[in-house]
Design goal:
This protein is an alpha+beta fold and 365 residues long. The protein is built from eleven helices and six strands. Helix 1 runs antiparallel to helix 2, helix 3 runs antiparallel to helix 5 and helix 8 runs parallel beside helix 10. This is Lipopolysaccharide export system permease protein LptF.
Amino acid sequence: MIINRAFYREAAVTTLAMAVVLLIVMTMMNLTLLLGRAVRGGTSENVLYILLGYQMLGKIDVLLPLAFYLGVLLTLSRWYRDNEMTVLAACGVGLTHFLRPVMLIGLAMGLVVMAASFYTTPLAVRQIEKVKTESSHRTEPDQVAPGVFTESSGTGRIFYAEKIRGNGELEGVFVSSLEEGGRGVLVAKSGHPFTDAKTGDKFMALKEGTLYEGEPGAANYRILEFGVYNLRIEPKMIAAPLVPMEGLPNMALLGQLGNPKANAELHWRLGKTIVLFVLAVFAMVFAYTDMRRGRMSNLFVAIVIYFVYSNLLGIGETMLQNGRVPPAAGLWWVHGGMGLVAAYLLWRRLRNRPLFSLPMRLKRA
């Protein structure tokens, strides 16, 4: 049917546009947080981009339902605004006709969200924890960011480099460490890390610099000029990353159904797909645009409904984790309640009744 094809095409394009916009917004928000860590010397540039990629991969199952909701809402709103829905209604094609196309798009989108929720997001969480663990156990030269004083955990050394070349060579190197006889300071023109072929120990070869040892003014204070100074890099043991509940595979969660947190995580993953269909009904309800009340009135209410739904799911998950909700109930009470509200509002919309009617006594007042 021509009407269905037109709706599929416009809804798909609008949903894709919303997904791109939301992805850009979420990327900028996460990038801002990661850049703050990088400026403080906690994350190198390469690790930053890897973390950003995995974080965005883990947001797909949250981003797509909202993009689909806005896509359907904006598509039908435009049809109402341009009187296309009025013309279709005069031809016997009402709002109920679009229920099937909307649900078919939701089904296709739901398969993608389900795959992301059950497989992609947990994988992204595990990879993020792995990268963070490896990053925290990097050797001292690998932690250095250009123009930033970086303190190495464990050794207490402070590293600084004005510039880092692509081959890993550092320029304008400053190293401060606390020794038995006082604080030692190394200043070198350049330096590069290397591994001893015989022992496997790692060193930083500092070239054309000065070593300051002891406390200034003390008898043991001395200044040494050097051509090459090999600074030993203390090795670090890499521990296995601690995987949070959000990153556990599905089979691992199924094996812990007696654990309220595992049960809550399973319901949370499943709920991201169910949300799609409930939001689809809400989108059809709030798509109607009354030009006398303005174009944004229903859109504002639709956004409020989305945040109410999201917050209820968050509250429900917390209650499920704490054992305040029976495991069998899961998050179904949230989906069921919001689904009933959506169905009731759609019923009122189909009968051309106001969605939120006040009692007669309040109207008279």
